[in-house]
Fold this sequence. Notes:
Shape: globular
Distance between the termini: 59 Å
Oligomer: single chain
Structural class: mainly alpha
Protein name: Lysine-specific metallo-endopeptidase domain-containing protein
Number of helices: 19
Organism: Aspergillus brasiliensis (strain CBS 101740 / IMI 381727 / IBT 21946)
GO molecular function, one term: hydrolase activity, acting on ester bonds
Number of strands: 5
Radius of gyration: 27 Å
Low-confidence stretches: 283-291, 410-415
Largest sheet: 3 strands, mixed
InterPro entries: MetalloPept_cat_dom_sf, SEST-like
Amino acid sequence: MQYAADDASDVAYSNEGAYLPYRDIFFAESLLDESVFVQNVRHTFDRMLTMVSGQSEFDDAKFTVTCKNLQGCDRIGWFAMMNNKNRLNFCPRFFTDDYLKSSTSALARCDSINLKDTYLTRAAAILHEVTHTNYIIEIVNRENGDSYAAGMGTGTTTSDSCRMESNSYAELVQEWFNTEDFTYTNYACSGDIISFNLYVPSYITFFNKDTTDCESTTFWYERRHYDQHQSGNYVWLTTDLRKELNNLIHKLNSLIQSTISDINTARNTEQIHYINIDYALTATAAESTNTTKTDEITALMDAGLIQLPDADTCQAVLGSDPDPYAVFMCNVAVHVKSNSSSLIAQSLDQANQAIANKDYSSQDVSWWLPTGQIKTFHARSPGMMFYAGAAVGEMLSDWGFENTFGSILHHEKSK
Length: 415
């Protein structure tokens, strides 16, 4: 590890002339002409030095080291692996295979080795692996994007950590324009770059405050259910609570509006736009019936059991970019193994009993659906149509056209 730090330090701080020949060979002339090229190289290797030296005070520059024979260690050319969770794993052959040399042996042959020899050292391999982290390449963590902009729980989904959906309103807006000359990009997991027009939709008021149907429904994530007797020490979705929660949404939307106004004023631009769609979606906010849920319940019934992964091995085999549901099930497996009488363990037992009894209406089964979590408080595919229509309407209005929000929605629904 010290040799890796020394290598990074040499590039970051040594005399520029020491590596100019390598720079000229391996990089295009267009890059060499850039005045900031060397600065960027130094900056990157300085961050690599910060990371491998283990002296950073920032959590995103810290990492853990494991020495396990993980899945992938048997692949040709794989000696170590690192992911954006900052876990560096050394495969057994990292220390034993002759293909990788120690830095000590390379330095002993300093007069006769070439660039390839220096690259095939364990120190160089460590530097290569740390470039797989968000800290080195300086990107915003993509795992915590905007679930509304990503269209969570609609259409088909990608399996990466950002979980972009086929019926996100960005996809629907792009489909509406239907031309290669116009690109509406979904920046749900992209960070804070705003060198483009940004359209920010309002949040919706989630609850119907005018009905008593929800009075006996719990407001607790881990044990959400309906009980007309309201037994147990639960928070219930009373009319007063629903009004209070809706008011919080109104206050949040007001904050978003004022923030957009402040930013536009400070930047002397109208680059950020507020889309008020709460009124359009309120009527559909409580809608929950859909074919996807029915299909998922049927799939669980056909499987006959909610099978948890092996608690001892599941974390090691998740990979660097696992499906969030796989992560959830692995975490449950680990939890249940050490807490067999917990509420989650009880829910799993009750769900499996309902599956054995072919009880399609069981509330316990719904909690374990693959999309059950992401569909809570998120619009379904028809709701995404409203988002898309509102975005298109606002854009047309900004461009000097009449805001034809109603006709856009009619056009989308008639497809």
